[in-house]
What we know:
By secondary structure, this protein is of the alpha/beta class. The chain has helices spanning 2-10, 29-36, 57-67, 81-94, 112-118, 130-139, 141-144, 208-220, 237-247, 266-273, 291-296, 303-315, 335-348, 365-368, 393-410, 413-425, 429-439, 450-464, 467-479, and strands at residues 12-20, 44-52, 71-75, 99-103, 124-126, 149-151, 181-183, 186-187, 204-205, 225-228, 254-259, 280-287, 321-328, 352-357, 376-377, 385-387, 492-495, 503-507, 518-523, 527-533, 544-549. It has a six-stranded parallel sheet, sandwiched between helices. It has a six-stranded parallel sheet with strand order 7-10-11-12-13-14. The protein has a five-stranded antiparallel sheet with strand order 17-19-20-21-18, covered by helices on one side. Residues 1-9 have low confidence and may be disordered.
Amino acid sequence: MKMENEKREEMFSLLFLTVNSSYSHSSLVLPLLHSAAKDLDHVWKWDAMEKVVDEDPMLTASVIAERSPDLLCTTLYLFNHNIVMDILQRVHVLNPCIHIAAGGPQCTEENGELLLKKYPFLSTVFVGEGEEILPGFLREFSAKRNRRSVLPENGRGIYKDWVSSPYPCNDPFFRFDKPFVQLETSRGCPMNCSYCTSSGIPPRYRELSQVKEELSLLEKKGVREIRLLDRTFNLPQKRGRELLELFAAFPSMRFHLEFHPEFTGEELRETLKKMPEGLLHIEAGIQSFDEKVQNAAGRKSDPVKVKENLAFLVSLKDRFEVHTDLIAGLPEQTEQSLLEDIMILMQIAPAEIQLETLKILPGTRMEREKEKYGIIHSPFPPYDVMKTASMDTAGILQMRLYSRLLDLFYNHKILHEVMVKAAEENREILVKIAEKIKKEKREINTLLDLKKRFFFLASLLEEEKLPETGFLLACAWLDAGFPVSGLPVEQIQIVQNIPDEAELIRGTEECKNRRETKYYLLSGRKEERFFAYNRAFSMNLPCGIWRKYRKR
């Protein structure tokens, strides 16, 4: 009995706190760390707590303090930094005996000591890959629990055994109940973007046989969506092509990839053309088309090649969607050059355009060079740029407005086709929207209601005289399920039937020729669209939409 009590006294408890951006997100960090330290399970008892950023920090802290683990570990990201620090500080006040440790992208070599100085409730900061650092720390915890330190003492931890490490999905802390899971087939990045914490870290790659085995395990568990954490999926291109061919062998899954459009050679193109419909979702990192801006940011690319390859990717929209990223506040970037980037993308017409403000992350080369480019940023997370030598604060705010307008209009699936056509008829359509908002002294929140966006666009299209876009706006109104009688633009006609030569573009042919079905016609300059309504198929939405091109 005495020996059992002594053994129990040697046990330590570890609580891992994960704070995600939403309930649908999950993190690989906990299963990766637990797998790396599994030989210490006889000494350490692990527990997990998973929260989201909008939950009550006081409630979370009180539960942690009551559980009273010996060690509380967490991961710091830009999106959760403030809320996590709020929780940790409350935990420390409620239960000062808990040793608090943090790691993650916010914990860099340059930032580690600053975090300890700024947050006295933090005891340990892990810099680099936790699998390399945490097991040793746990072994020596008795000696280190009353010390404050940054680990490792020099440099950053690189998990040398990652390539041959256990699959995280085999760990008991892996979550299979989320809408998607994350997967690593590589670590590090071959690019040298000065604003990225992965810059300069040599890539390491899992063998394709390992990736196949891990995917098979995930498939057996019913996983249907995979988000790859690989920084640049299509580098090297040969490996990217081989991975795509491997993914095609898992048709029940969907793969979200980060893609650099420049590196899309002929063999990779041919493979992409053969991908099954719906298998891929591609996030294409553009950041800027301006060569001067790219060079200043360490992201040297050929803008002509990037545009050509991006247009190719977008041309495969029947197989997969392409979302693109731009960054505002890059060095040497001007308001006009970024606006030009936006207009170029709107004409290439990817499914989405995301415009984010540059974040000056601690420990990056960009942070060290910020004075060189006159960069002024928030001193607190998310460290967003507020001014540069080439773009003043008014310009940054204007770009933030464009970002919001892209989300409200271009990125909305119902309005996407309308905005693409608008950009064809008037390249500066986004500028016109912004000008109208300011002229009418509108609050942007008044456009959160989709119906109000329709009427706003209808008024703008009339002012700018964009008839083809007006026709598509009317089609989108009906497609969204709004009433025929409230159409903001165009005249609609009641017709008796759908012409045989009309092509079904959405809905079902079954609703045709039904006694209760009603048919409506919208006529554009180049095409006609027919809309069928029957409540037996759909209450408010059209049950079928057909297109008929006009003869030239």
